[in-house]
Design goal:
5% of the residues lie in helices and 46% in strands. By secondary structure, the chain is mainly beta. This is PLAT domain-containing protein.
Length: 301
């Protein structure tokens, strides 16, 4: 880790930073995982900028300069001392929708909190303000004894005439310790969509855990899908400290020459991935194949 001090004029709330170097050629590149920026004032903030990319003329896209948007920040003055402990009671201010008026929702929200001692979910959360955009809604959740909150997942249930939801950013406050932080999302939550990367949930770190897109490949034994009712399947990854939730994968995206399908889903770290589950809807042919494979294994006649 490298650290350095910069003096600058008052910039207000940091939205992004530009980081780069002026060297090209072999051995001149650098891989940057993340950048922390701390304001050197009493009531300042500490910012997190996720990167996880090379700045190297000979690697991947060849860029030696990148613009990083703010992932999250916390208020330094609210960092609790050892005399304060949390009981899992949190206040969230959800900033919803876009400036053009899109992104409002009638969906109920499920909010899942993941801590270092477990996880907890609060379901059927809704505020009438969420039906207009842009808007902000204050909700309170009690996660109970899950320890220090590491990440949060927000899910939609698809209720009503506006099931999809655009979540801009979230202000968080621990009601027990008064610790405060902000996490940016700026993503759509979409349910029942077949488009690539559509997800009915989004996750964000509570400035204690970094996140990266989880990528993978599905290898099909055949490109024929006559046993499937719908080419859209759902994948769920399970790790040492959690799971990703289900996200859609279009099985029709396999090319003519390959039987591999790439996928990507955003999720806060789930630790080492130990298993994957694929969900598909089968037609009558698929049901028959399932029964056909079941009988020999059970010695039924």
């Amino acid at each position: 880790m490298d650290s350095f001090h910069i003096e600058t004029n008052e910039l207000g709330l940091l939205q992004k930073i530009v980081i780069g170097h002026d060297h090209v050629g072999y051995g001149a590149g650098v891989f940057i995982e993340r950048v922390l920026v701390t304001e050197n004032v009493v009531d300042g903030r500490q910012y997190l900028f996720q990167c996880a990319k090379w700045l190297d003329s000979g690697q991947v896209d060849g860029k030696i300069e990148r613009t990083l948007k703010t992932t999250a920040y916390c208020y330094i003055a609210t960092i609790p001392d050892d005399s304060k402990s949390t009981s899992g009671r949190w206040e969230f201010i959800l900033h919803s929708g876009k400036k053009d008026g899109t992104g409002a929702t009638t969906s109920n929200l499920n909010i899942v909190g993941y801590g270092n001692r477990g996880s907890s979910v609060t379901t059927k959360i809704y505020d009438n303000k969420m039906a207009s955009a842009p808007s902000s809604s204050l909700v309170q959740v009690d996660f109970g004894d899950i320890g220090d909150l590491l990440k949060v997942r927000i899910e939609i249930d698809g209720n009503g005439e506006m099931p999809d939801y655009f979540l801009d950013y979230v202000e968080l406050k621990d009601l027990d310790t008064d610790e405060r932080m902000v996490s940016y999302v700026a993503k759509w939550l979409k349910i029942g969509h077949s488009e690539k990367h559509a997800q009915p949930f989004r996750e964000f770190p509570v400035f204690r855990a970094a996140f990266e897109p989880l990528t993978g490949k599905i290898k099909l034994s055949s490109r024929r899908r006559r046993h499937l009712k719908d080419p859209i399947g759902y994948v769920q990854l399970f790790g040492e400290i959690g799971e990703t939730g289900r996200f859609p994968v279009n099985l029709a995206y396999a090319s003519n020459s390959k039987t591999e399908i790439s996928f990507k889903a955003e999720a806060v770290s789930i630790g080492r991935v130990h298993s994957t589950r694929l969900y598909v809807k089968t037609n009558e042919i698929g049901k028959f194949m399932k029964i056909y494979n079941f009988y020999p294994k059970t010695n039924l006649n």
